[in-house]
What does this fold into?
Amino acid sequence: MCGIVAYIGKKEAYPIIVKGLKRLEYRGYDSAGIALLNNNGLNIYKKQGKVSNLEDFTHDKDKMGYAGIGHTRWATHGPPNDVNSHPHSSEDGDIALIHNGIIENYDAIKQRLTNNGYKFKSDTDTEVLTYLIDDIKKNSSVSVAEAVRLALQQVVGAYAIVVISKSNPNQLVAARKSSPLVLGIGKENDFYLASDATPIVEYTKKVVYMEDEEIAIVDLDEGLKLYSIDDVEKTPYVQELELQLEALEKGGYEHFMLKEIHEQPRSIKDCFRGRLNAEKGWVSLGGIKDYEDKMTKANRIIMIACGTSWHAGLVGEYLFEDLARINVEVEYASEFRYRNPIINENDIVIAISQSGETADTLAALELAKSKGATILGICNVVGSSISRITDAGSYTHAGPEIGVASTKAFTAQVTVLTLMALSLAKIKGTINETKFRTMLSELEAIPQKVQQILDKNEDIKIISEKYQGASNALYLGRGSSFPVALEGALKLKEISYIHAEGYPAAEMKHGPIALIDEAMPVFVIATSGPSYEKLVSNIQEVKARKGKLIAIVTEGDEQVHEIADHTIDIPDTDEHLVPLLATIPLQLLSYHIAVMRNCNVDQPRNLAKSVTVE
Ligand code: M6R
It folds into this structure.
């Protein structure tokens, strides 16, 4: 939540920062702002709305600057408006600051500073931190960097900040705690700072992922210096970025979401590349190899996640329990962390997160770690906070996901969970060789089957047209298709703003059935398998109440075809792998409905891709 970018060096800072802000806009788009330092002083421009508004606003302004900081906001304290936008500056205009995170004790600090005569212009916690740094700088007669360090010692909460100052024109000072910050080391003694590596990748591949409570000073003369918040100098750990620039472009698609939906044959294949060989009959996840023995012996595995990643965890629960006979609990990270959960050294906690930065998931993981549990991660973003604090884990290798609505990250998470379940089942001997090999072959065939579904895009668009005016929608599924129903409903509501609910199909008669009338579209995953007959009964119940039925069925299906208003065929596969296929038409339906309703599918209102506040 909130994206920050900064630059200092020989290049013009404005284009670098604006381009970077556009890449980070997925993190929040309530307002955008920039502060530019040149020989005439520090110019600050900020505007409510998207980065393009900021560009319009600055088109006739002085945009020169060898250093600058930029921010795209997801509002926490105070409504989205120009005044609450970042950067925030000190009263004398000497320093300006951008911030991603929340200063929890801002109110107490604000009271103190108000008593000292400070007058606040905005409602934000960030302005409080800016004034605190200014206050310390003046009253203790210390440098900006030292004032930042001392101020952060007083702060409770999460932050990634960058500070620029007129009186210290050769430096940027940056710090982080619980909010991500990446530092790029340029080729010409120039430096980049950003919430993730996407604004940096086209300028340099040498990066430092800053750790919690680290302060970086980048200086045009002295280069990079890294300190702990206790003022101990540290050696920066410089890493090589693997990110490719093309992965950050739309590649001819109208939206990132559509591109990412269409990337799934490739992303699923990338996910199992080198980890599975159906012909030779093996599956191996190198990242968790050393923990597999412990996993097979665990009394239970707890999966923690939020949103779509939580849905992937629910699919994982079916897979682990059915294939490997391991007891699994799936928890919302935000509930788990505040529930005083019973955890000990025998427990294994797996965090699932696309971004690897979700504040609740990170905090839940830290809690589990403090109680002695083994903590593992399934993340997409390489080098993310979760991937760094876990004992071990498996990356999903889906590539950058820019659309706020998660699509390819979900199928990649489910793929990793399937590989894990198969590997554990093999070790435990809970799967026979024939079934194991059949499942490996089926898994290898999934990318091509996903492509077959994507090829039906035009038919799915025609169905979408009929439901673009709906106010409510219901999604039903049984077994591992229940989380797919939840995911389908989440996808529709978050990008089209149509109210949608996912339910286990059999639960419908315990309440939701009251909602069904001729205006209610009901999306049902009714693929062949052990629950098929039961699902047909549920479908009949919907039809009897005149609900509009859109069913995802297995190719060759006749029974549901007869009853449903629309059917979308998906190729036959092993029942454990159905979620990987059934999800695809639901993603496309949501996408088309949202586009038809003129919604911003890549940046839905009120949302942010990376939820780094609790
Ligand atoms: O990065 P994470 O996977 O931890 O994010 C979790 C949720 O915020 C995320 O899945 C969210 O629900 C998406 N908008 C869903 O499309």
